[in-house]
Amino acid sequence: MPEMMVMQALNQAIAEEMRRDPKVFLMGEDVRASVYGASANLSREFGPDRIIDTPLSENGFFGAAIGASAVGMRPIVETLTSFMWVGMDQLVSQAAKMRYMFGGQVNLPVVFRAVMYYGGGSAAHHSDRSYPLFMNIGGLKVIVPGTARDAKGLLKTAIRDNDPVICFEDGTLLGQRGFVPDNSELPGGELLVPFGKAAIHRQGTDCTVVAIAGCVGLAIQAADELQKEGISVEVVDPRTLVPLDKTSILESVAKTGRCVIADPAAKVCSAASEIASIVAEEAFWSLQAPIMKVASEQVHIPFSQALEKHVYPTKEKIMAAVKKTMG
Amino acid sequence: MNIPKDKLMLMLERMWLIRNFELKVIEAHKTGEFAGGAHPYIGEEAVAVGACIAMRDTDYIAGNHRSHGHPIAKGASLNKAMAEIFGRRDGYCKGKGGSMHLADFSVGILGESGIVGSSVPIATGAALASKLQKKDFVSAVFFGDGASNQGACHESMNLASVWKLPVIFICENNQYAVTTSYKSTVAVEHVSDRASAYNMPGVLVDGQDCIAMYEAMTEAVRRARAGEGPTLLEGLTYRFEEHSLGLGKIRRSEYRTEDEINSWRKRDPIVIHEDRLLKSEIASQAEVQHVRDHTEKLSMEALEFARKSPWPEVSELFEDMWADKTMPIP
Predict the structure, then answer these.
(1) Residue A12 maps to which CATH number?
(2) Most Cβ neighbours (<10 Å): which of A206, A316, B5, B82?
C-alpha cells in the first residue's frame, strides 16, 4: 500500500474520474499550472478543454459550473474556502436550492473543492473553515476528509454523486502523508468511500472523540498518548457532515459514556455544536459527563504566530478535554 | 417581411397567452387565491416572444423574478404554470417554487430566479456545457436593467466572451429597478453599450416590437451557433403594471408619471403586432379574434385547473431536496 500526500490522493481521484467519465472537467483559478497542487499534470493529460483556467470571477464561474451540471456535465470547481464568500449567491441561491425549488426536476452533479488554509500565518482573509455554515444551508453535501485515503475515496464518490458536494480540503493535511491502497489491491479495482459512514480510527471504551478534518490526526495522537496513561479513547471521524453518520457517533457514546468533539471551525454554531446537540438529545442517558467541544476560538485569525497558535484545537487541548470528562 | 405566417401568428398567440394568463393571475391575486406576490410582465411580452420564437425547443433559457413571460414564450404549459403559482401539486415544481421559480427542463427552461442577476451565470454554464459537449444548442438569459448592475451579469458576459460561448444576454430594459430609474444607476446611455467592454455586439432593440426582437435574436442565435460567441441584446420596453402585485398598496411616492405610463401604453406590443398583421393583410380580423378568444379560453382553463389541483401532501415536504434517496432527514 503506497504512502502519498493528501494532495496527491486528491490528484489521483480527479485523474481517475476524468479518465472514466468524459463529462467530468475541472475549472478554477490557475488549475492548469496547479498553483494549489492538486491539479498537477492534469492539464498535460486532459488538455485545456477539460482543465479550464477561469477569470477571477467566482460568482460567474461557480454559476457556470452549476449551469453546466444542470444540462449533463459533471464539473469540479477548485477554489479556496476564503473565495467562496465571493461566489456565495451561486452556492446558496442556485446550487443548494435549485433542485428543491424546481420540484426535483434537475440534478446538479457539481463538486466544489474548497481548500482550507489556516494555521500558517495567512491572516483573517485566507484562513476560513466555513463548513458549518454550509451544513446549515441544506441542499449541499459537505465532506471533510481527514486522511489521504479518505481524501481520494470521498472525492471520487463526490464526483459520481448526483447532488452538489463541497469537499473541504484541510490545508494542514495537504502535505501530510498517509497510506492509500493501490487500485490493484482493492476488490472493485478502485477506492470509493461512501458518504454518511464514519471511520473509527481508534477503538476505545472510556471516551469518544469525534474528530473532524485536520483534527482527526490530532485526536489519534491524543488517543495514543492517553492510552499510555490508561485512558481508552475511541476516535470517530464522521468523514462527511452532510450526510452525518449519527448512528456511529451515538453507538460510540453509548459505549464510552463520554464525548469530546474536536473541530477546527470556530466554536459558535460549529459542526461540533451540531454533533453536541445530537448527542445531548439522543444519548443523554448514556452520558456520564458533560459533552466537551474543542473547537477554534471565536476570533478572526490573527496574523502573528504568537497569537494564531492559540486559536485552534491541539492535541493537548483534546487530551485536557478528555481528562476533564474523566473527572 | 419574410417571416413565415405561422411564425408571425405564433408570436401573436404567445403574446396573448402571456397577457391573458397574467390578467388571470392579477385577478386571482386580488381575491387572495394564492399567497405571496407575483411580477407582471404585461407590456414586455414582445421581448421574450420575439427572442424565444427565434430559438429551437432544444435551446436553453433562464429568467428572473418577472417570471411568467419567459416560460410561456418558450412553450411552457399554462396549466402547470398557474398551478405552480397557486402552490399546488400539479404545478411545474409541485408547489415548491411558486411564481418566481417556474421551470420546465423538458423544454430547456432552466428556471426563473428570484435573486436578480443570479440566473445569468447559470445560462452561461449551460452554454459552456453545449460547447464542451460539441452540441449546437444555444442558451439565452433574460434579465432587467437592474440586474445589469450585478457583478454576476458582468462576470458572465466576460466569461462568455473569452470562452466564445453560445449565449445571448437579453436585457429587458423596462427602465425601472422597482422604483429606481436606470438613468440614475447605469453609467452608460444604454445597457447594450456595456457590450463593448466585453468585446461582443451590443444591440439596442425596440422591445415593443416582437419582429424587431425576433430579427435581432435570429442574428444573435446564428452567431452563437456558428461559434462566434455571445451577444448582448437590449429590448427597450416598459412595465405597464407595478413592480409586484400588492406593492402598489405600500408604495409611498410616485416614481413615474401618468403621462409616461400612458405614452408607453400606447405602444402596446400586442396592438403593434396585431395592427401590422391586419394592415399588411397577413391575418384577417377573424384570425386575430380567434387568437384572442383561444388564448383567453386557455388562460381560463389554466385558472380552473389550478383551482382544482390538490395541495401537496405534508409527506412531500422533504421530497426533492436530494437526488440521493438515501439521504437522512436530520
Answers:
(1) 3.40.50.970
(2) B82
Among A134, A161, A185, give the residue marking a domain's end: A185
Give the catalytic positions of A in this structure. Answer: 126
Does residue B198 sit within a domain?
A: yes
Domain that holds residue A225: 199-326
B40 preceded by a cis bond (ω within 30 of 0): no
pLDDT digits (tens, 9 = 90+) for A28-52: 999 999 988 899 999 999 999 999 9
Each residue's pLDDT tens digit, B203-254: 999 999 999 999 999 999 999 999 999 999 999 999 999 899 977 666 667 8
**Has the ipTM of the complex gone over 0.85?**
yes
Give yes or no for A244 touching B (CB within 8 A): yes
Asked which of A152, A185, A218 is the last residue of a domain, the reply is A185
Chain A positions touching B127 (Cβ under 8 A) are 67
Q: What is the CATH number of the domain that holds A287?
A: 3.40.50.920
Helix, strand, or coil here: B6? helix
Which residue in B62, B118, B125 is closest to A93 by CB distance? B118
- C-alpha cell at position B323: 437526488
CA of B104: which chain A residue's CA is closest?
A105
Same domain, A229 and A149: no
Q: List, as ranges, residues 41-100 from A with C-beta within 8 Å of B.
A: 49-50, 54-55, 57, 59-73, 89-90, 93-94, 98-100
| B86, B90, B92, B132: best to mutate for the A interface, most A CBs within 10 A | B132
Query: Do both A211 and A180 map to the same domain?
Result: no
What residue spans of chain A are helical by DSSP H?
6-20, 42-46, 58-70, 81-84, 88-89, 98-101, 131-137, 148-160, 215-228, 246-256, 271-282, 305-308, 315-326
